[in-house]
Design a protein that fits this description.
460 residues; Pectin_lyas_fold; Lipoprotein; single chain; signal; globular; mainly beta; 2 helices
């Protein structure tokens, strides 16, 4: 498509230039610019970026197309707003970096260019970060979903051998009304992260009302921390192609109108044993379903593992999913669960409650094999989720988590009530290396609401 091959140059008005020189009569620029400009500007962005660039606090930047940051660093100051028009997205290529750092009271907002009240999921394409970390694909690199594969198009390629690669920083940011389908099974998400490494910093980020997945991690090792994914049209957190990052403090909330899975975990579709295996380590997560009655459309599930994907899940809550709590789908993922020692599919210190309206167990998720319209095997996985997962010795329980108002779509409160068993440190494991070890509670929250001030839940 034409917008994928725009000429590569940058609007000079967007680059941070040096102060004018040669005029001694002019006052020097202030050393501390006003963080609240009285004359905010609206800047249309219709060219790619090839040098260090700063988008200023208070300004609004309107993406007119797919905008690729091909080199340099795109700095976005706290309080800036980025609006996407139909057919636009912001793509940080693997030869560039983003430095978008908001604050709790001045988050960076990526949203639709449509007027408030007319915004909806899929208005624009979202944010894409591409890096040089390992994938489990042939040749070690590929073209990111949401774009047509074109030989020699470096802009959309990701992957490599640098598991510590730094795609940049995205902090205190909201991404709203994003994601769209370029072609069947080829979609952009609210936030797409391909092959980013462990030096990447994605922290305090909300993705709200995305048309496809909230966040999709394609391989790599990028960590996620303080993540809120609300009312995604498809999956909330989707990971595949060998993603092995560390995740802590994660909230997922489904809507009864849309949504598929809180987590869809895949590894390699044709060779599920291909290394690296998708098996992130996730601590302190709250997965909240829509609390709708089982059956009907859409089907909604909690955690689904297929094509050889796993997880090490600790100190989590899985509640109110209308159809399934956990589905270990296929022999390859079941084999990970059965690994000796620190298996790459394991669930510990986790509370399940009111999934498929069950308050004493979790439902069985069979994986039948069908040939020619006939079921030839009722369950190829040979995995009874309740029998395998609900093991008291692993700290896994079916018990009311006593959350404050977790299914409220416009003003949710995910914190546990006073006296909730989630706050009892005896029910929680101590997070390991690379995590906040003080988080001795189950779920994404203890008694502090780290969502305060920077999150929002607009419906249109």
């Amino acid at each position: 498509m034409k917008r994928l091959f725009a000429s590569l140059f940058i609007m000079s008005s967007l680059v941070v230039g040096a102060a004018g020189c040669g005029d001694d009569d002019k006052d020097p620029p202030p050393t501390n610019p006003d963080p609240n400009p009285t004359n905010p500007e609206t800047v249309e962005v219709s060219q790619d970026i090839t040098a260090d660039t700063t988008w200023k606090a208070g300004n609004t930047y309107v993406l007119k197309k797919y905008v690729f940051v091909n080199s340099g660093t795109l700095n976005i100051e706290a309080g800036a707003t980025v609006k996407g028009e139909n057919g636009s997205a912001l793509i940080i290529t693997r030869n560039a970096r983003i430095n978008a750092v908001g604050t709790a009271d001045k988050p960076i907002v990526f949203t639709s260019s449509q007027p408030v009240g007319q915004r909806e999921a899929g208005n624009w394409g979202g944010v894409v970060l591409l890096g040089k970390a390992r994938l489990n694909v042939s040749g070690g690199e590929t073209t990111v979903e949401g774009f047509f594969a074109t030989s020699g198009n470096e802009q959309t390629k990701y992957g490599g051998q640098d598991d510590a690669h730094n795609c940049g920083t995205l902090k205190y940011a909201r991404i709203e009304f994003a994601g769209f389908e370029l072609a069947p099974n080829n979609e952009l998400n609210g936030l797409t992260v391909g092959g980013c490494g462990s030096a990447t910093d994605i922290d305090y980020v909300q993705v709200h009302l995305g048309l496809d997945d909230g966040i999709e991690m394609f391989g790599g090792t990028a960590p996620l921390k303080h993540i809120v994914i609300t009312q995604a049209d498809d999956d909330a957190l989707d990971y595949d192609l060998g993603y092995t990052g560390k995740v802590q403090f994660l909230v997922v909330q489904q809507s009864p109108r849309v949504g598929d899975r809180a987590i869809e975990a895949s590894s390699h579709k044709t060779t599920p044993t291909q290394e690296p295996i998708s098996a992130p380590e996730i601590w302190n997560a709250s997965f909240i379903g829509s609390n709708a009655d089982p059956g009907g459309n859409p089907s909604q599930e909690g955690l689904v593992f297929n094509t050889g994907a796993g997880i090490r899940l600790r100190n989590a809550v899985v509640a109110y999913f209308k159809d399934q709590a956990v589905d270990v789908d296929g022999e390859a993922s079941a084999a990970l669960f059965n690994e000796a020692g620190d298996s790459r599919l394991s669930i510990r210190n986790t509370f399940f409650f009111d999934n498929a309206n069950l308050t004493d167990t979790i439902p069985f998720a069979p994986n039948p094999k069908v040939e020619g319209g006939v079921t030839v095997d009722p369950d190829v996985s040979r995995f009874n989720e309740a029998e395998k997962i609900l093991v008291a010795a692993n700290g896994v329980k079916v018990q009311d988590p006593q959350l404050t108002d977790a299914t409220n779509l416009t003003a949710p409160n995910f914190l546990p009530k006073a006296g909730s068993p989630l706050l009892n440190p005896d029910n929680a494991a101590t997070p390991g290396a690379g995590f906040d070890t003080s988080a001795r509670f189950v779920g994404a929250f203890g008694t502090t609401n780290w969502m305060a001030g920077w999150t929002a839940f607009p419906q249109n």
